[in-house]
Fold:
Amino acid sequence: MLESLGWNDGFASSFDAGEGRVPGRVVVEEKDAFVVRTADAEVHARLAGRFRQRRLAEELLPTVGDFVAIDARDDGWSLIQAVLPRTTAFVRSDPSRATMTQVLAANFETVWIFASLTAELSARRVEHFLAVAWNSGAQPVVVLTKADLEDVDADRLAEVESIAIGCPVHVTSAITGDGVDELKEHVSGNRTAVILGASGVGKSTMINYLLGEQRLATQPTRADDVGRHTTTHRELVQLPDGGMLIDTPGLREIGIWSIDGTDTLYEDITRLASECRFRNCKHRTEPDCAIRAAIAAGDLDEGHMKTYYKMLREMAFLARRKKYKPGIDWRRNTKRVADVAWNDRADL
Ligand code: GDP
Ligand code: ZN
Structure:
């Protein structure tokens, strides 16, 4: 059933059934091979030659979560002939190459940002992941794990909630099952969630809990709450009660994003900045600076402000490299970057 994989009228309308092609969803992506689930089978697939011949930009190549058109071949491999337009995507620049970007996941409705209640719960890190999540076009959800181990610190929770403007925060345990039903709601109706979060915070354990089986190897508990990746490739799993999860080890290294979609998150700062006396205020020594006044008065967290300007700086860097990003209104981004280029300060 393709619908249980998230197939809908939107994808159907961009699918061309000519030449014996069938639609499917990429559920596993490895170096040069894919696993594609169709309405009635799961097949191994490779890229049709034309993908290479046309030297397509990396972001136009299939990734996990993509709906694709495939046709079968005699040798047992199917060929991916087309990638259907995406509704959402995680795009990162590949630091090993000058101008390439890479799509890490596609077509998801929600992004689950995992953070452990036991480790130093870093609000800054959550904030960073939130920025990435908003940028993907999907709805972020904050998942605080290991509630069975720690009494929930009300101050810390309040801090995370104050950052997570416009998105739910769930306190969960994969041991007691607390908060798990609420989490499942976010993927009801055949929706897809992407899993984000640092190593050791309990992502694999929660995925296994939701799957009802030990599909993923979990890590031994480590005092410093860091460790190795337990998954080696990007994978989409279907939950027994419906809904899908995309687990993407590579997302942890995401470092540079465009600011589109982060307006809600940094609304307070942009609003304050508009109240500074000078429109190009650097919030340093200028008179009547609303940002500095708010920090001094304790109304604005300095770290929050710095994260925001750090992100703008990363964007300005991106713009200078003249990156090509299909699907993103780059001209608009560039203009906004130009507006904030004065904030290109090394000390943030
Ligand atoms: P990942 O790297 O984010 O996938 O983290 P893991 O799922 O491998 O979990 C890291 C460690 O935390 C493992 O030892 C888990 O058993 C433990 N853990 C994960 N979730 C919970 C939880 O809800 N409660 C408790 N007590 N331990 C947990
Ligand atoms: Zn100012």
